């Protein structure tokens, strides 16, 4: 399993903020190396207003090929693709979430990150892109179970896994009921060391469309003569919006997590809106979570936070660590 390179001195770019020290996406990208790894990127490379090589982030085709090049160069993926209209995520921020979870596990393990196939992670809402399991497996060797409600998204994720011979390391499960998160996914036999989730944060399609137009305007790209994508970075319904938006979804996460509190060491979710953190913490305290952590995250102008919680008491956590992590940490 490759080890991360030493961290170079970062230089500011429009699409990367202050990243985790182990994040591979530090500083400016070397487009010559990216094109060598992924020749189909070449036609999409432009010179930005700063005189630097970049791509047009308003072009969905360019963004998809750019992601493909990143995954090929930094994570060794021979194949990566998603259906038209599905979410094409910014990879540096996704990697930051994985590295932050590794730090969370290390904090429970005398500063040593538990690595290898004994560590089981559950991704709620894996999407068509399968990004979190791909990065988590590559960086730390963790095994993943990846769940989604969308059959087409799971088919896309499955094609990525099969093409890269990762089906023995990353398993897919479909959630049959839209009003459940962990129910139907976590079985009696399952034990997960970490769960992760990037919840839909809009309450409706109209709200998602409005958010995209606002982002294009802020970026100075809302040119009436130019045809722009309806949704920046794409996205289907379950990826971007749900009834009640982020606030309702993370409250459901908290409520359902309590039922599986002895089968999971750390639950976690991203929270896009700072105003939703307090409501989540209230719900978790009501559910009698033993420990709640909030970790600030950022990428460029985007601010987010990771909230993690556990229902295991100190003794149970110690037993879990001794039986599952002790022989696998390095």
Automatic annotation (TrEMBL):
Task: One GO cellular component term, please give it.
Answer: cytoplasm
- Encoding gene (name): rlmF
This protein is called Ribosomal RNA large subunit methyltransferase F
Q: Which reaction does it catalyse?
A: adenosine(1618) in 23S rRNA + S-adenosyl-L-methionine = N(6)-methyladenosine(1618) in 23S rRNA + S-adenosyl-L-homocysteine + H(+)
Residues annotated as region Disordered? 1-23
Q: Which UniProt keywords apply?
A: Cytoplasm, Methyltransferase, rRNA processing, S-adenosyl-L-methionine, Transferase
Q: Where in the cell is it found?
A: Cytoplasm
Origin organism of this chain? Pseudomonas duriflava
Cited HAMAP family: 23SrRNA_methyltr_F
Q: Name one GO biological process term.
A: rRNA base methylation
